[in-house]
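RECORD TYPE: inverse folding
INPUT: structure tokens
STRUCTURE:
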């Protein structure tokens, strides 16, 4: 049994943010590995400055300064309506930013207005969030499957000035909240990227300004909003990129990672870990509108569209071939459902030892062997699921631990033995103590991050 004991790194992490309800929490930065300086937030040179911040800062399009070319320049998003490259994301988000500015121009807003996002799990979510950051706003993701009463609670609780909506749903009655409709993903298909000259933005967000308000699941009470700054996001993403060795399309001679994304877009797992981190480093995100167990299993384990049902086929892009997914992230329940699907649909045929069964086993083994990382998080991973998934896929799931308030904290090693229920390394410098079954404290231990951190080297008082 293990009990985390946070060092002074987190000790002062809860503080008030002006014009935001006082109980909304903002965590302190978890690492010193950020790439900023005071001059980085001056006028940009026309690039999306994701090497320094997630905020797309546009200037006079001076393309001669190659040092400012962004890490994210070759990122791609694939959803059921097509493939979109970085240049398209820039153009679409800038167009939406201008629409936001026009609609909210007469409102007397705070420096960092909160804007809710009610979008499908596709490119529209990314466009909406980038446009909000360009506006120096704070994104407040809403869960598309929640009832309107819960949307209303979050919107009012976070004091949102507007809601950006791509879903064709009715919103509850909201006072002094404007609705900004944007096209669905299908309407962004086939649009040519046009040459653009960007008008300098009126204001530029600081790295310590809030970027997102993510609401907790509400296990112990009403959901609470957690404010994450741009520095928080970048720090966490840099940690995951380094710890899990994300492959970027910018690395010469290496293929970019492709992550199959089917997580909800209102928690850190789906928003930061599985979406912005791959986009930030130059990888490819293959987005599904939702988790469909049959579809996900077929994308991970088969090499042909022949066995797809009509519903499954409607949820994916009709490309020439199934993507060679290299990373998958899920929660234990998703892996449990994938195991059930395998046992019902694949295992009986494999156990016949017929030619077709042997071929199916070979295909599944080959597909899974081409993947390099499968992650489980958001809940404790039962040992039985970890072992059964290893029998099916050959992968020991990498379990990680995090919180909305602090991001990712602990992880199984990328390379090395992964022990169920035990984390062997940390993204940040953190202390924990082993606790016996009778809750008697055992020897305290420090997890040391080789990249350093801004926590104290002194052992905390237990």
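DESIGNED SEQUENCE:
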């Amino acid at each position: 049994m293990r009990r985390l004991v946070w060092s002074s790194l987190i000790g002062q992490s809860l503080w008030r943010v002006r014009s935001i309800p006082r109980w909304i929490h903002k965590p302190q930065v978890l690492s010193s590995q950020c790439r900023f300086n005071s001059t980085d937030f001056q006028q940009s040179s026309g690039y999306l400055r994701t090497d320094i911040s997630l905020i797309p800062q546009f200037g006079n399009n001076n393309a001669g300064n190659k040092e400012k070319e962004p890490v994210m320049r070759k990122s791609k998003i694939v959803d059921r309506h097509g493939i979109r490259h970085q240049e398209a994301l820039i153009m679409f988000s800038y167009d939406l930013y201008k629409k936001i500015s026009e609609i909210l121009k007469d409102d007397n807003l705070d420096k960092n207005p909160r804007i809710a996002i009610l979008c499908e799990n596709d490119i529209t979510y990314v466009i909406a969030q980038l446009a909000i950051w360009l506006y120096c706003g704070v994104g407040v993701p809403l869960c598309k499957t929640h009832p309107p009463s819960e949307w209303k609670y979050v919107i009012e609780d976070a004091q949102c000035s507007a809601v950006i909506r791509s879903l064709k749903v009715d919103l509850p009655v909201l006072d002094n909240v404007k609705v900004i409709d944007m096209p669905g993903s299908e309407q962004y298909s086939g649009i040519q990227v046009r040459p653009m000259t960007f008008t300098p933005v009126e204001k530029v967000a600081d790295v310590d300004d809030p970027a997102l308000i993510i609401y907790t699941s509400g296990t112990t009470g009403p959901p609470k909003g957690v404010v994450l700054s741009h520095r928080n996001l970048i720090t966490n993403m840099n940690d995951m990129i380094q710890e899990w060795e994300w492959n970027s399309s910018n690395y010469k001679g290496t293929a970019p990672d492709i992550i199959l994304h089917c997580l909800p877009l209102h928690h850190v797992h789906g928003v930061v870990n599985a979406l912005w981190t791959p986009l930030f480093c130059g990888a490819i995100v293959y987005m599904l509108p939702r988790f469909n167990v049959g579809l996900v299993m077929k994308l991970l384990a088969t090499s042909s569209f022949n066995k797809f049902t009509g519903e499954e086929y409607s949820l994916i892009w009709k490309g020439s071939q199934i993507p060679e997914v290299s990373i998958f992230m899920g929660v234990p329940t998703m892996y449990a459902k994938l195991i059930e699907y395998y046992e019902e649909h694949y295992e009986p045929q494999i156990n016949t030892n017929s030619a077709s069964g042997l071929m199916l086993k070979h295909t599944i083994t080959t597909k899974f062997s081409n993947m390099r990382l499968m992650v489980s998080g958001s809940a404790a991973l039962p040992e039985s699921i970890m072992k059964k998934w290893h029998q099916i896929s050959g992968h020991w799931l990498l379990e990680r631990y995090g919180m909305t308030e602090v991001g990712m904290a602990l992880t199984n090693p990328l390379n090395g033995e992964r022990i169920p229920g035990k984390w062997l390394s940390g993204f940040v410098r953190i202390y924990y103590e082993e606790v016996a079954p009778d809750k008697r404290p055992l020897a305290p231990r420090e997890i040391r991050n080789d990249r350093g951190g801004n926590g104290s080297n002194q052992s905390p008082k237990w």
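NOTES: The chain has a mean pLDDT of 76.
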